[in-house]
Model the fold of this input.
Amino acid sequence: MNDTYRTISKNFIGTYKEKGSKFIACTYPFDSEDQLKNILELSRKQHLKASHHCYAYRIGTEGKRFRANDDGEPSGTAGRPILGQIDRMELTNILLIVVRYYGGSKLGTSGLKRAYKEASKDALEQAKIIEKIKSKRYVIEFDYAITSAIMHLIKSASYTIISADYGGTKTQLILDIRDGQAQQFLKQIKDFDQLHLL
Done:
């Protein structure tokens, strides 16, 4: 089943030095743009004397949302190389910030691209890559009389029950179904007249 995605387990740090400038790359598990402001503020507090805080991220289980930011470096010399390394590793739900401590010598556009790329590469090569399953939650409600049949179906297909409410004459379940099993699940529940998808 092609219903998994690759991400990182926790924060990791990589470094690169060139002509006196030091580049420190920090990875963050990241699944919402709402987190960006706080993480950038934290990075700036931790690296008060850094001249730039460039970053890139890719989020979503399909990896469709992304952004690359040069933070004052020449256009395309920082954010894009950082994003390029994220994509090389086929990762999503990740933010990578590379801070630069200026060393007094200009690196030129090719030097900057190389430095941001190598710092990012170092962090990602140290990172623990994990595979996660894409899934959706479904709420089903059915007559109490068919509970044992439904539970047998759930157990045999290894569906995950998030919560259960057995109150009254109806049973309500919240299930976590991996994307690769969704069509099978929806087909199976059609066979039960006393079951409703909420």
